[in-house]
Fold each of these.
Amino acid sequence: MNVGFFLKKIRKEHYHTLKDVAANVGLTSSLVSQIENGKASPSLNSLEALLKYYKISISDFFKQMEQKDHIYVSKANVETISYDNAGVHLSLLASKLHQNVIESYSVELMPAAKIDIKIPALKNEGERFIFIMTGSAEVLINNEKLFMSNGDSLNYKSHLHCAIFNVSAVENCELLLIGSPSIL
């Protein structure tokens, strides 16, 4: 566990200089630098002082340290939610980053199935992207009907109502659904 790396990351995210931090927590700039670069370990008192200055609790700090800056999900580990009675299968793709901005799903719509995409509480917050991988669908976007098929894509503001229908009686429709904020 590299405590110093995360302390440095937090300091830079808050645009503090080594000198500012040191002066406010009662440490030398040299010691703060050594801690951030892994050349010295902070005492519990020093760590508490630094985190208090950054307004971060110790538990939140260690939770942050457990998070990664990237996430990889192999096909074998994709989580799928099935709504068999509605004919919809949602597979959550690599979207589990700490405080992630986007969610991404692979969606399979059985013949005649439909999915409504959630509208966020705040208007003008985020956008959505739909890409048809196989089959075709009717997309109702803010009362306008679009017929989309394999290879077609749509990007729209998330405050617009959107519903996706598989109009085929025999063929599944598979699509990527990506967006911010939460889609479902």
Amino acid sequence: MKKLAIIGSGDLGQQIAYHSLNDNHYDVVGFFNDFLPKGTVVNDLSILGGQEDIKRLFNLKVFDVLMIGIGYKHFRERAFLFELYKESIPFGTIVHSSAYVDLSCSIGQGVIIYPGCILDMNVIIEDNVLLNAGCVIAHDTIIGRHSFLSPAVKIAGFVKINRSVSLGIGTIIIDNLKIGENIRTGAGAVVVKDLIESGLYIGIPAKKKIELADTVG
């Protein structure tokens, strides 16, 4: 079994470690965290060091694959770290055993798919995407890299989600739509037309509420 190290030891990093270990994907050796001392124990796993230690410990074969446990509140850092290391360190992928992923689907590096997700025919999940529990992605839909889908998101067929999109819990998107980069939706939003401009969209139907400062160029 390959050894996994996770950047970030907060709630998301701990969830990735939990599913990796309990669903028999990787042997988790610890976390990288710039804000805790090396050797600190978090949920029975040690802090291996900070970002400056990642390449050195990979070269020493302390771990085989890397994943990013940084969530939707820090999209810029989430994307930056993946792009920084993707050419030199392999990224792991976790698809929970309770998820249904059709054989025609394409799953990128650094992806985690939580319990109970359903991915229909020809779905494409690009790199460094998180699908939280119970997401349903219909046929021929694309989820762009670095995106983050909260629990129970439902997306119909032929939808194109661009990079660094965060969909709030229970968001629904009807078929044949395009969602632009750096867009976020609030809980329970219902998207019935293309969303192009960066910002937070809420309500039924989803309408833009505010601009977002923490976007990824």
